[in-house]
Description:
The protein has helices at 26-29, 33-62, 69-102, 109-142, 147-150, 153-179, 194-237, 246-293, 300-324, 326-349. It is mostly helical. It has one domain: Rhodopsin 7-helix transmembrane proteins (Rhopdopsin 7-helix transmembrane proteins), CATH 1.20.1070.10. The longest helix is centred in the last third of the chain and has 48 residues, at 246-293. The chain is globular. It is found in: Cell membrane. Keywords: Cell membrane, G-protein coupled receptor, Membrane, Receptor, Transducer, Transmembrane, Transmembrane helix. Its main location: membrane. This is Octopamine receptor 1-like. Belongs to the G-protein coupled receptor 1 family.
Amino acid sequence: MTDFFPSSSSSNLSSTNSRTFNSSTIFQVLERPKVICISLLLLFLMLSSIIGSLVICFTIFTTRRLHFAAYYFVASLAVSDLGVGIFAIPISLAYNLTFEMNGRWIFGVTACDIWILANFWFISASIFNLCAVTWDRYIAVTTPLLYASRMSTQCVIRMITGAWAFSLTASFINFYGLKTSKTRKLCEIQGLPFSFVMYSFVLIYLIPIITIVFVNAKLWVITTRQTSKIQAQIVSLTFVTASDTTQTTRRRAKQMKGNLTSRSAIKTFRTFLVLIGSFVCCMTPFFTVLLFASLFELPGFVLYVVVILTYMNSATNPWIYGISNKEFRKHVVSAFQKRFRRSSNVNAVEPGS
Length: 353
């Protein structure tokens, strides 16, 4: 989520550019196919992140049935994606255009510092929010009947607050390392000391990702077993005869209630599995390249590609919730229908008032 590499060579981004750069106007820049393609892609990713995240937050906020732990974490994750769409990608788009015009960062040191810190924060927040989502799904799948008590509102608030606070702390540490680096270039991630890169790679990426993948692999095994068990019990229930006692019928009904809860948790888990898979595919290249970039210089094109991948993660996250989860799609449609009906009722009353 940090875009510091709009050129084909990382050395081109120094605030004091060593090579002669011929200034161009915005119209001359927009005549270049590469610039147009990158700008349109960034614009699309920005709109997708902002619109998708706002839809997710609006739907969760206005739908009572979604007021439980799993979707509180989704809302928190959507806020981090919204931050990328508002802070990271627009400046990235402006940076891409102005660099092609002037060959340097033109927005000043303060704007650069705010931009870098915000990018570090949002990428860390996404990771730690996914860790919280993973824990929530683990509780929901393994102990569905105890889910409400174990994941209370107070517990969820503490977890979300902790995820954002810890990510902010981690971001300040990285930001400090970049600010105090003697080899730093203005608005470049290259120059971050190796010790700080290793800190980011291990604490912010490696440990959380290993935990997320391991826990979700275990959950996949559990959900597969539970699905088979539920199907078997549904089949056996169809053979209930009139000779069954009332006690047996009640016991079977209780089993079915637990099975329905498990089935709902399994469906939600599969949606998050897609979400986590997308996250791993988009973030792994970024952190891997970041690690190698601290050891030797890499082509700017490689750095830029992995940065755009992180933007793609934020742009696709909101749509994964809606596309992969049929129930959530229904809630989105319902939320906007209610909103439009209220607006129509207000407009209908106003003329006669």
